[in-house]
User: Fold DUF4190 domain-containing protein from Actinophytocola glycyrrhizae.
Amino acid sequence: MTDQPQGSDDVTWELPARDRRGKLASLGLISLGLGVLCWLTPFVSVVVAGLAIACGVVSIVTRREYRIDWTAVVGICLGTAQLFFELVLFAMRASGL
Assistant:
């Protein structure tokens, strides 16, 4: 017996993200941790935000048989928000505000 309903052979089934195995399994958690860390480190926040985004993207695009890891998505969002915040601060400094 299979877990798929009868007559739905064309549907692709995805495994939960928590069931990932191997070295790439923790990239979502690393992305989330770096995303939080980039808001706490004022001097290297751009670098840490870039690493958070990179780890999250690698976690999402590899192992497509698994669902998207919510920790990777949150890490990407936090890193992107930090980069946007730094861009706004840079624009304010450049304009003399």
